[in-house]
Write a structure and sequence with these properties.
Blueprint lengths: L8 H10 L4 H8 L3 H8 L7 H11 L9 H14 L11 H10 L1 H21 L2 H4 L11 H11 L5 H14 L6 H13 L2 E3 L9 E4 L4 E4 L5 H16 L1 H9 L6 H20 L2 H10 L4 H8 L3 H8 L12 E7 L4 E6 L28 E6 L5 E10 L11 E9 L21 E2 L24 E2 L11 E2 L1
Parallel strand pairs: 1-3, 6-9
Antiparallel strand pairs: 2-3, 4-5, 4-8, 6-7, 7-8, 10-11
Length: 470
Amino acid sequence: MAIGKLFIGRKVRDLRLANQATQSQFAERIGISTSYLNQIENNQRPVSASVLLALAEKFQMDIADLSTGEVDRLLSALSEALSDPLFDAYSPSLQELKLITQNAPGIAHALILCHQAYRRNSEQLASLDTTIGRSTEMTERTPYEEVRDFFHFVDNYIHELDVTAERLSAELSIGDGGAHAALSSYLEERHGVRIVRPSVNDDAVRRFDPENRLLTINPYLPASTRDFQLALQIAQLHAGPQIDAIANGAGFRTAEALDICRIGLQNYFAGALILPYQVFLRTARDLRHDIELLAARFGASLEQVCHRLSTLQRPGQKGVPMFFARIDRAGNITKRHSAAKLQFARFGAACPLWNVHQAFETPGRIIRQLAETPDGARYLCLATQINKGAAGFRAAHPSFALSLGCEISYADQFVYADDLDLTNRSAFDPIGISCRICERPNCASRAVPPFRRKLTIDHNVREATPYRLV
């Protein structure tokens, strides 16, 4: 596949500084002029194929790791923030936004944080009858959102934690099956933890008594969930200090965010332990990303498999860049990550034309969709409905829809694309990110007009919407 124009000035500059070289020294080693290197580092010119090869040969830069995913995520978040009517007087071009995200990502992150605080403050002012007298902390990002952004902007991949989990998985031979017995034995033999049955009225998913070293797991959970909870307990005991170091280094503003991040990192370790990176990546390729076969092969749930597929971003060993989301019946996105160009809206509901909403109508099936976003990018989208919770008549069984997909250039690596006509443009459904930032002019499913467009009303004509976008 041909390499498009790559503006990787910050990466080249960081590489030069890491090697303690001046611009003239670095330019001489890769065979270009100092002025050309200066233009590359300032993203005024893209790197050529010959420069890429020189960087790979002289400085071991892995060309496969030059993904634009980080810039795409930041560009999407910044574009959405600037679509707010607050910025009506300023309409930056795509090139301006790219210059900011590529050259000054810190400023972009700061602006996004300011916009989030502004939105929250506006929402609180709009409901003063219930919020008068509350702390001004209500105007800030919630700890949950702060942690979600942390995982989002590290590409949902924590290298040191992933490698630690993979080593332990190999030691326990988890990738070869039999995860439950291996996890249980490890807890008892290495950490002195006995697994006992809970009391009749204890409906907790997992409960650990650190003083008596007793662990109870709800016996009515699916086997994949029980194994995950065992792996999570191992994360606390085996990787606790490492998890604390990562969470403490993230610079969270509150103790609540720090604790929530610890939970997220424990979950990350658990997923990496039962679905070890290299074994899982190789199997996913062999099975052509058939998520049902992957779940059966590793004794995992569909959600665990889909989530893990979205984290395969190890430098030098990357999987297919995918997007993943979990959505409830009300349309709330409760999990989201994208290593692909497609980025999820940070505010508002997802596009109603997206096939993930149809998953609730066809439980047990995997729904396929060829979709195209307003920027012309095309995707293979998969969706399926799942139920969670323990067994029992009175147990809660929340229902969710999972969405997984990739850009169409990777579709041939998926079994789901075998009988689809990927060359027929008319086979692609037009979807957006969310109505508030979607520019499609005449969409019958539009809930609200886009913030940055003016409207015109013709009382004598009624089309798909009661207004037209100017």
